[in-house]
Amino acid sequence: xxxxxxxxxxxxxxxxxxxxxxxxxxxxxxxxxxxxxxxxxxxxxxxxxxxxxxxxxxxxxxxxxxxxxxxxxxxxxxxxxxxxxxxxxxxxxxxxxxxxxxxxxxxxxxxxxxxxxxxxxxxxxxxxxxxxxxxxxxxxxxxxxxxxxxxxxxxxxxxxxxxxxxxxxxxxxxxxxxxxxxxxxxxxxxxxxxxxxxxxxxxxxxxxxxxxxxxxxxxxxxxxxxxxxxxxxxxxxxxxxxxxxxxxxxxxxxxxxxxxxxxxxxxxxxxxxxxxxxxxxxxxxxxxxxxxxxxxxxxxxxxxxxxxxxxxxxxxxxxxxxxxxxxxxxxxxxxxxxxxxxxxxxxxxxxxxxxxxxxxxxxxxxxxxxxxxxxxxxxxxxxxxxxxxxxxxxxxxxxxxxxxxxxxxxxxxxxxxxxxxx
Length: 422
Hints:
By secondary structure, this protein is of the alpha/beta class. It has twelve helices and 25 strands.
């Protein structure tokens, strides 16, 4: 694997045969989550395909020429031509493998994969998810001398790691950068002795057997499982959204706001995330147009007041996006006035979407009891409807979802498990 600059692009990529190029950024959790996957796959496929990385912030002109609008972005080349769709955002290892496999003869793919040997590891507790709830559970369990493994498809921190500022976490007088709060939580749990298997793909989960298969070849078994899988951003499901994700539409201000210096953006949403992230984006962008379906924001009053006082920000209340289109370098967001039904074109350089979250429960095959919104039901000790399976944090059914409530959930589950196992 090699780091290159734009000056080396022609010789290393266009004249480099089969190449996969990773455009990454700093302070970008999805980039950090991709890095170990990219490096690991380079050891498997590196004899046939060249793996190169490029720092997007120092090579913006080339990134823009190649249509890179989000970090990270993977581009696949063969003899100087793009040979597969680009991948961006939270990239799965299986997605990369699929693209790499299409670049090679099937017999060579079979030969490469024959070298991957299955493995099995045993623990007392598996924690699925490394947000505040999972990290806290890991801390309490390892302090109780319980052999614990923490599994996450990304890096530790959850949504906190992509929150630019946390102003209400107890013990800190000044607001804390989200990535630093996540880092400190993670380091504390890691130093205690919890085993980390992060930035992996979760292939299969069997809650009854208490087995988790990661990266298609490693089986992890335990006596108990704590589900701390959190939530994911809601999608609007309108024309152009899927096609332009990572190519003008972003769901992470921390990752991509820095690329909109002196440019105009549209922000969709009006809750806490939308309002707080719009305020952060305004540090870079020259103009922000907020699009919100209701007559007023639903964010906390302090955040609302701060944003509405920002001269860079204008708001279209009672409007909803209906489609996204890219015209040249510009994004066109077609929005509908919910009162008059009039359609308006908003031209911008990029769009950020923050319209709420949904629980990450797809891998559990509807085997857990949930509420009407799909969140997992638990008792006061965080036990779910399946014996030996616990759930904590944003993925569970509860009234408030905050860092502090997730930490409390993790504490309760860990203490309950420690008492059972000891």
